[in-house]
Design goal:
With about 210 residues, the protein is mainly α. The chain has a single domain, classed as Alpha Horseshoe (Serine Threonine Protein Phosphatase 5, Tetratricopeptide repeat). Helices cover about 70% and strands about 0% of the residues. The chain is built from nine helices and no strands. Helix 1 runs parallel beside helix 4, helix 5 packs antiparallel against helix 6 and helix 8 runs antiparallel to helix 9. The radius of gyration is 16 Å and the shape is globular.
Length: about 210
């Protein structure tokens, strides 16, 4: 992301594409959530993203401010623990990113702040079978690329870490959230939060790759 105007366009196009892709997977995300929850994760994500898209389209200011507004709208509309966590991730990342520069190093710094906030709010760590199991490896992999890669290339290079992290949750027993109360019932199913987080990251990759 070079100019502030390009960054604003990327944020809006990313949220719109994320909504499209999550909506296409709403039923599957609900199925995964039903393995150890009430099956509403897909609907929660769609509801939150619809509100986030609308908020970002109306918001004024820089790309960071758009993410702050989108995160607040996501949390308000989606409700529940996952809505609060994703909303906090968006808002904290946006608040840290601010008015740039929108280069790899600053995006990494912003995502690290978002990750820290999600961990604090959710009281979870890698291995607890949450979205952190996809987000942490992605942020770590992106940071490893930051020194010598433009953002689009670094993001693409870091994506496999998120996919692998989400897939690995199938072998985990949940230790946080509602599904933690159900013990091994979720075993064999990837965590829906980790899957939806990966879909968000993949949508961002598609937008970044087109500039």
């Amino acid at each position: 992301m070079s100019s502030p105007e390009v960054a604003i366009s990327i944020v809006r196009r990313w949220l719109a594409l994320a909504l499209e892709r999550i909506a296409a997977q709403e039923e599957e995300l609900g199925r995964l959530d039903a393995a150890a929850g009430d099956g509403d994760h897909g609907a929660t994500m769609v509801r939150g993203l619809r509100a986030a898209v609308a908020a970002a389209d109306k918001a004024e200011g820089n790309a960071g401010q758009l993410l702050v507004e989108a995160g607040a709208a996501f949390a308000d509309a989606s409700g529940g623990a996952s809505g609060a966590l994703v909303g906090a991730l968006l808002s904290t990342t946006g608040r840290t990113l601010g008015d740039g520069p929108y280069d790899t190093a600053n995006v990494v710094r912003a995502l690290q702040a978002g990750l820290t906030m999600v961990k604090r709010l959710g009281k979870a760590q890698p291995g607890d079978k949450t979205l952190i199991d996809a987000l942490q490896p992605f942020v770590d992999a992106l940071a490893a690329q930051a020194a010598d890669q433009p953002l689009a290339a670094a993001w693409a290079a870091a994506l496999p870490a998120a996919r692998q992290g989400a897939a690995a949750t199938a072998a985990m027993v949940a230790r946080r959230g509602r599904s933690a109360k159900l013990g091994e019932r979720s075993l064999g199913h990837p965590d829906p939060g980790a899957v939806s987080l990966t879909l968000l990251l993949q949508a961002a990759d598609a937008v970044l790759s087109t500039g």
